Amino acid sequence: MKQKIIKTARVSLLTALVLSNLSWNTIPNDETNPPLLTVKGFKFFDLNRNGKLDLWEDTRLSTDQRIDAIIKEMTNAEKVELLIGTGMPGIEVLTGPVGDSKQGLVPGAAGGTAAFERFGIPATVVADGPAGLRIAPTRDNDTKTYYATAFPVGTALASTWNKTLLEEVGKAMGNEVKEYGVDVLLAPALNIHRNPLNGRNFEYYSEDPLISGKTAAAIVNGIQSQGVGTSIKHFAVNNEETNRLTINAHVSERAIREIYLKGFEITVKESQPWTIMSSYNKLNGEYTSARKDLLTEVLRNEWGFKGIVMTDWFGGFPGFETISKGSNSDVVQQMIAGNDLLMPGIPVQKKALLEALNSGKLSQEVANTNAKRILEYIFRTPTFAKYKYSDKPNLTKNAEVTRNAAAEGMVLLRNENNALPFANKQKEVSLFGVTSYAWITGGTGSGSVNNKHTVSLLEGLTASGYKLDKELVDLYKPYAEKEVAAEKENRKAKGILALPQRLSEMKMDDAFIARKAASSEIAFVTLGRNSGEGGDRVVDNDFNMANEEIEMLDKISKAFHAKGKKVVAILNIGGVIETASWKDKVDAILLAWQPGQEGGHSVADVVSGKINPSGKLTMTFPMKYSDTSSAKNFPGIPVDNPKEVTYEEGVYVGYRYFNTFNIKPSYEFGFGISYTTFDYSDVKLSSPTFNDKMTVSVTVKNTGKTAGKEVVQLYLSAPSKSIDKPKEELKAFEKTKELKPGESQTIQLNLSPKDLASFLESKSAWIAETGAYKVLIGSSSLNIKKTAEFSVLNEITVEKVKKSFELDSKFTELKP
Known about the structure:
Structural class: alpha/beta
């Protein structure tokens, strides 16, 4: 590995000479551009301005050699300064006074690493988050604004099932990160939707690790193509917000590896993110940020991760409220585990780490290894390269990217008698629901974005040329503004991590609604939900409909249907809600998610038929909350203040549970309809027996009258002789191009040995058993169009690993 780094990082004498002739002479000596030194005809930056060429400034040496020279010179105090972040201004509202917090180079950023003048090492900047760059839009003594684009939330992006599009979204995010002077975006977030009530599910992608990993990998590749880094998070088993800093998750090694680590493994192997963020929670009795099996054995040794691991902000502390009382994380264990950077960094950590280094409690070897990884990261950053960022990202182009991505992620759940598309711009439309006017861009907390403006559904439909009932608009607009203002005040009073509340619906009598049904051609009714960091959702009035929402839907549906008119429900939500009890009352349901700042335009594009919806669910919508496999084990015990949570459902999460135990969902995993229809034919396997790989091909034809895209999903049903297995599992997927009516496309899907394997704890290995494997090709997990079979003649041991994640308490896992 070392040789490889030297080989790839070495700048040859010729290159140095070319560079010196190209541009170095033209750079003036100012604050950002250090003076030049000329040695034997070569020019070098005098990074620390000491008038001599230090080894780390000599670009004829490899990056490896230059970094080793710095570490050799560093004092213990300097190493500690490097291993601990620079703090986060404003965090005191959560923690009480914690000491010095330096404002970084980019106001509103979440923190960074320290500068070292004597080595010419600059401070680097990290900032949130998963739906786009989160920085302060305004600055002291500065008339300019620094707005960023609010992209669709994670659930919306994943629902596109379109890896190429996701990479474009990543590129747009990366453009803003780089041009606003940030080095690493603290994103994407890919924790599993273990339970629909997790308050941060909107940031995450799916109940399935393949979707989570492939989505995150595409976004990471897009962001990092712009020369900035990512931090995939929260590693790992961080599946709830309740007592998130201290909750102890009891999980079997099989469930950890097959469900909760799998997405991270895919992302690491397919995109090599610059950094990974360890999570808050304990896993089988130990904080994840202090687990060597997780951060070194699995992440680095098994998967080959090369970047740095940083803690989540105050990871390893027993609660924010304990910090002002002087509590500390186990800094030594975190360093030994392979957690290189402690964020955001506070004086008590520095003091403890320096004492440990001086006394030998923390070895120089560990400190040097972690410091080296951080320096390798710094050497890759735009800041180190003295990139002249513009503070002018391409916001216009990025708005177009978010508009298209949001439309492609929308899922058409219901469309009776072709209620949609509704393209008539002459007839009047009634727009109901407070959220139509107070549109929800995305969730709250570190996953939110300070964007300039969000396009509401009202604005989107108006801009698209729809004729809206003016009386309704004039009633709703001031009502919605009042509701939003009250909600903001309520959150302000509760503090930085206050959770958003549902806005109450406007009361309307039957006669008024009947009048609207007489004058309008169609009713659009938006139902909204929001959630955020720091707390989980609840069943009543959140997962379930509120009584006033049911009453509103009942009245509108009754009145409009009496006149032979259609009713369309638009769901402006971040995660799963109950739909079974009310879905038959409306003619169409469009799941718009929280689609980012251009959301109103995106919805208008879909309802008008300008864009044919092609999104598919990446999670199951259950008939009722109690049908979820983790319902009785969420958020944990004791109920009023959970300290621990047991993942008794094991690998039976989401559709793996519903399909295996034959529990009928309201809408199944992978579901989503279109304005057209598709036919599947010609399923072919590359071989009747599996050797090293298997290719499955299928032809998809658009048999309808509208151009559209289809998502082809490959599920695998494996033999279960030595271990129980889900009935089927998603192993590959591909989205077609836009197919014109009558047009066909042949899709090829590949299976590797690991796709066939399950993790056997008894053997500490991924094993593919002998026997018949059934390939199921479908447009959802329950709508299987074609099947085929192949066999494995000899058991395959795909990968042997070290035993990890030993349980701290025994429990019985669910079995079919």
